[in-house]
Amino acid sequence: MDLSALLLSRIQFAFTISFHIIFPAFTIGLAAWLAFLEALSLATGQPVYRRLFDFWLRIFGVAFGLGVVSGIVMAFEFGTNWSELSRRAGAIQGPLLSYESFTAFALEASFFGVLIFGRKRVQPWFYMLACIMVAAGTSLSAFWIMINNSWMQWPTGFTTGPNGTFIPTDWSAIILNSVALVRFAHMIMAAYVTSAFCVAATGAWHLLRGTFKSDAQAMLRMGLGLAAILVPMQLIVGHLVGDYVHDKQPTKFAAIEARWHSEQPASEVLIAWPDPEHERNLYAISIPYLGSLIGSMSFDSREVGLTEFPVADRPPVQIPFFAFRIMVGCGLLMLALAWFGSYLSASGRLERQRWFLWASFCSFPLGFIATLTGWFTAEVGRQPWTVFGQLRTADAATPFLTTPQVAATLIIFATVYALIFLFGVVYIYRLLRRGPAALPSYGNAATNPKRPLSIAGDSPGVPATGYSTEAGE
């Protein structure tokens, strides 16, 4: 297998997973948000929570479908492009992905139909249970995926068998790996923060347009309030992830820091242009001692540099270096928006500050950008290993693939995904623009379960029921 086919296979998998992760990053948090709204509706009886639930359920249904469709391809890519990884690690990764089907998909498949069509067909307590089960299913799906990925980041609980295969010896060490658990928490918090800012941005958008004011105020205040709690928690969990990288993947940590030479005490490079060819940083702005404090919680610790490792074992520096700083920058910006917005809300001035409404509206991509750049940091920083320290990426690929074969599938995937993304985004945009009160009540007798997308709006010949366009104003 030549280098071009390997590179194209990496680009193809990076493209598909980057496209796919957008939707779980949204729907995992949105499923929990729906369960929260349903609980508030049952506890208080206030119609605003029911209107918001109905509104976001339609968006959840569309985004959930897009996530499922875009994620199926990756399972096939393990066999077509990465057959050596599948052969050697199949005894571990196969069961982990099967557990996702037996637990997460089973919960989602069992209760998703109740969530979409069962409002008037089941008791309220059972409908609440369905909301919780769907939320649990989305989180369980993330759990097994993170267990699988974290085993590749820090493999444990295995021995090497014939022909270099990885044979599991301790499933508790694989599943309860401390690296996996802290990374799972990091991913879940990222999804919750992403959804919170999407909700807040939607509320700000409708307030700027002067539509559905009471519902928009609720979305803006609740979204910012949840983010004000979640973002600091995410920063703490992110620091724990950094601790594992520092201790177990020193090459990745050095690449993130663009630290070429070992230092004691170590400075922290805030921004620079890494120059791998000459093993230096250009235009660097650094803070003395801060690198030691971040790495080891000490002002005089020795922090290892990339030059202590063979060149063949070093990851590319520029991608994890810049991706990490973009992720942290997004996190700090979201923290400032959430805390200042919560302050304005508590003082009763939130809706009158149009500049802040615009800032909140424009903040909706921040969670997605932070999630994507976090994944880029983790995955590119792991290179040149697919299974860290055990299997190199070049040895994990299908050996007989050719450049034209991979190029053709990459073009096909890019075209199909672009069309899916275009139509999906346009459809979700239309739902967001119509607002919570403009949508008919779902679960009526005319709704056809054989046409799931009918939940998103009126069908021809089906009378609209539910709320008038003036509701919530």
What does this entry look like structurally?
With 473 residues, this protein is mainly α. It has 14 helices and six strands. 68% of the residues lie in helices and 6% in strands. A hairpin with a 3-residue loop joins strand 5 and strand 6. The termini are far apart.
Summary keywords:
473 residues; two-stranded antiparallel sheet; disordered C terminus; globular; mainly alpha
User: Total number of β-strand segments?
Assistant: 6
**Spatial extent as radius of gyration:** 24 Å
Q: How far do the termini sit from each other?
A: 63 Å
Strand order of the largest sheet: 1-2
The string of secondary-structure elements, in order, is HHHHEEHHHHEEHHHHEEHH
Beta-strand percentage range: 5-15%
Helix content: 55-70%
Q: Counting H and I runs of at least 4 residues, what is the number of helices? A: 14
**Can you tell me the residue ranges where pLDDT is under 50 for at least 5 consecutive residues?**
439-447, 458-473
Shape: globular
How many strands, which pairing sense, and closed or not: the largest β-sheet? 2 strands, antiparallel
Which structural class should the secondary elements be placed in?
mainly alpha
Question: Mean of residue pLDDT?
Answer: 87
